[in-house]
Write a structure and sequence with these properties.
The complex is a heterodimer of chains A (about 350) and B (about 290). Chain A is mainly alpha-helical and about 350 residues long. Helix content of chain A is about 75%, strand content about 0%. Chain A has a domain of about 220 residues. In chain A, strands 1-2 form a two-stranded antiparallel ribbon. Chain B has a two-stranded antiparallel ribbon with strand order 1-2. In chain B, a hairpin with a 4-residue loop joins strand 1 and strand 2. Classes of the chains: A mainly alpha (about 350), B mainly alpha (about 290). At the A-B interface, helix 5, helix 6, helix 12 and helix 14 of A face helix 4, helix 9 and helix 11 of B.
């Protein structure tokens, strides 16, 4: 029955798009009615973070294992500005985001010199450095205690109610998502996708591939920062957890669970993971690492298309002219030796 | 001068852990093109294995040094056959993510069983220190350094002086050519993975008497080792060993003069190397 429904939807592609957009907006606006509002805000923050991550992994083919650095830098930056200056929280978030993007410039500059697995290790190492600096710089960051008492300031509004704050934060998230969508469908995004598939040819065509990679890295860090800043304001504090490597792993899992390269799938993945963690915490089950790890293993082994990827695959398989769907494509080092085939 | 020597010695001791872990990472990477994120978790399991043997069976350090690496190497072989092998034909990043998941599971299981506190392990085979007048070498640290140098040399001999080593080196450097000579390189994938795992477990057992044994001990270390192999270049097995010792020492000496950089010096070193020699100090210019 579901499949016939999919068939019918398939014939109306354009309507499907608009319908999805409308449904998405409806969910976005209705979320705090169905969930505990702070959890709803968490979902949209992590959702934007995961979309930013997918911009890099799914569209530029770069697996960053250090995105916690940008999320966390903005969380701390936003918190410091909000605590010490009392400006509206939008300004504080923008300030924190700018700090994250500025940090991404040197890290990205160094990291794009290597690709593939090295890129992942380098970003992870630099993020760990950011973690140590945050931990050591106690006078400013509060060290292990974290940064507490981040206010939700907005002149003329009382945002102490989390339900109200959700609607104050949502437009920022939607703007971030719009930016991500626009980038993917721009000429810039096309060059990036081409550089992922065949870097040598893109260079031969005269595009500075590394330059493009750096730009998307900084953009991704900017969007991650936007999400991290909002997250810090939502919780009223920033902790070391925000800059720790487990946070980088968590966002990677959201994107992979949602579907690499599907952009909106990341939102679904983020919602699923945040809900799951919330549910586990409520149930008093503390082994989140265990659950996260098992999901990670299972998804990578048997569910590599992810939720969104699987749905679009089913849709396409039912379409009149089937589009060949391959494994979600990550960057390959073409000059490198291929893995040893084994029997 | 005294503190200089003292610090250089301490650096070499940390370097011996970097070297053992980097060596395992490098042979695994060479053979499977997989960067094993779970390497840190195996190191942690190695240390807990020593603690567990002492607590439950009353077996001391030497038994642990013998049994734990073998047991974990067998477990690693199984994990390779059951999980990692399935993804070898795909992009190497998938196995990086898979081993990340394995690392999370191991770490959390240990935390659930032992809590977050450090476990005491007082079964060091040698205690006390050599007094050289200028400063003192703790005996166990000297032992660790010596053993790790011996192990690295043994692996080097194994790789260069035996038939198996020659096949493995050939399979690492020119897999297609090696197969063209009629040698089945696939046979060696699983044993080499198990061997690398055994080396990490050995490092873990060695760490038990001198480091805090807790579930998070390997996670932070492995990220430092990633920085070390980026500096040294994963493509070269010996480069990664040399880089391990050298960077351990350089970082320790750096800490002496710039204490504020104590935890970040390795990463700064990595940034400098990426600036001037992106392929790593000993790495071949494979692709930049």
């Amino acid at each position: 029955m579901i499949l016939t429904l999919l068939d019918r939807l398939n014939r109306r592609r354009a309507w499907l798009r608009w319908g999805l957009l409308a449904a998405g907006l409806l969910v976005a606006f209705g979320l705090p009615w169905t969930l505990y509002p702070p959890v709803a805000t968490d979902i949209v923050c992590w959702g934007l973070f995961a979309v930013a991550f997918d911009l890099l992994l799914g569209h530029a083919g770069l697996l960053s294992f250090g995105h916690a650095a940008f999320w966390g830098t903005s969380a701390y930056g936003t918190g410091l500005i909000a605590i010490h200056s009392g400006v509206p929280f939008y300004v504080a978030v923008l300030g924190g985001t700018a700090a994250a993007a500025m940090l991404a410039l040197p890290i990205g500059y160094l990291a794009v010199r290597r690709s593939g697995i090295y890129f992942a290790m380098i970003t992870l190492a630099f993020a760990q450095m950011v973690y140590f600096v945050t931990n050591q710089w106690r006078d400013v960051t509060g060290g292990e205690n974290g940064l507490q008492g981040i206010p939700r300031t907005l002149p003329g509004f009382d945002l102490s109610n989390s339900f109200v704050f959700y609607y104050a934060a949502l437009p920022v998230v939607l703007l971030g998502l719009l930016a991500a969508w626009r980038i993917v469908h721009s000429p810039f995004g096309r060059v990036l996708a081409a550089a992922r598939e065949n870097p040598a040819r893109v260079r031969a065509l005269g595009y500075p591939a590394d330059h493009y990679k750096l730009v998307i890295f900084v953009i991704s860090a900017f969007l991650a920062g936007l999400a991290g800043g909002l997250y810090a304001v939502n919780h009223g504090f920033a902790s070391l957890q925000e800059v720790y490597w487990t946070t980088s792993g968590k966002v990677a899992m959201m994107t992979i669970l949602g579907g690499i390269g599907t952009l909106w799938g990341s939102l679904v993945g983020a919602a699923a993971i945040v809900r799951l963690e919330d549910w586990l915490a409520t149930a008093g089950f503390e082994a989140t690492g265990l659950v996260t790890g098992v999901i990670f293993i299972a998804v990578v082994l048997i569910f590599r298309r992810g939720i969104w990827g699987t749905i679009t695959h089913l849709l396409r398989a039912r379409a009149v002219a089937p589009v060949p769907q391959i494994e979600p494509h990550l960057e390959h080092d073409h000059d490198e030796l291929q893995p040893t085939p084994t029997n | 001068m005294t503190s200089f020597l003292q610090q250089a010695f301490n650096g070499l001791v940390s370097g011996s852990f970097y070297a053992l872990l980097a060596l395992g990472l490098a042979v695994i990477f060479g053979m499977l093109r997989v960067v094993n994120f779970a390497h840190g978790a195996i190191y942690t399991l190695g240390a807990f294995g020593a603690v567990w043997l002492a607590d439950s069976a009353g077996l001391g350090f030497w038994w642990a040094l013998l049994l734990v690496p073998v047991a974990l190497a067998i477990a690693g072989t199984l994990a390779e056959r059951l999980l990692i092998h399935r993804l070898l034909a795909l992009d190497p990043l998938y196995n990086f993510l898979l081993t990340f998941g394995i690392a999370l599971v191991c770490q959390d299981l240990l935390r659930m069983r032992y809590g977050s506190h450090s476990q005491p392990y007082e079964h060091a085979p040698v205690t006390g220190s050599f007094d050289l007048g200028l400063f003192e070498f703790p005996r166990y640290q000297v032992f660790t350094l010596g053993l790790s140098v011996v192990v690295c040399l043994a692996v080097w001999l194994l790789l260069t002086r035996t038939r198996i080593g020659t096949i493995v080196r050939a399979a690492i450097e020119r897999p297609e050519l090696t197969r063209a000579f009629g040698i089945d390189t696939g046979r060696w994938v699983t044993p080499v993975f198990g061997f690398g795992v055994g080396l990490a477990a050995l490092a873990g057992v060695l760490a038990a008497p001198m480091r805090a044994v807790n579930s998070g001990m390997g996670a932070d270390l492995i990220i430092t080792v990633f920085a070390v192999v980026v500096i040294g270049g994963l493509g070269s097995v010996f480069g990664s060993v040399v880089a391990g010792f050298t960077i351990g020492m350089l970082a320790a000496l750096g800490n002496l003069y710039f204490p504020v950089l104590s935890q970040t010096s390795v990463y700064l070193l990595m940034a400098v190397v990426l600036l001037i020699r992106p392929a790593g100090l000993f790495g071949k210019e494979e692709h930049v």
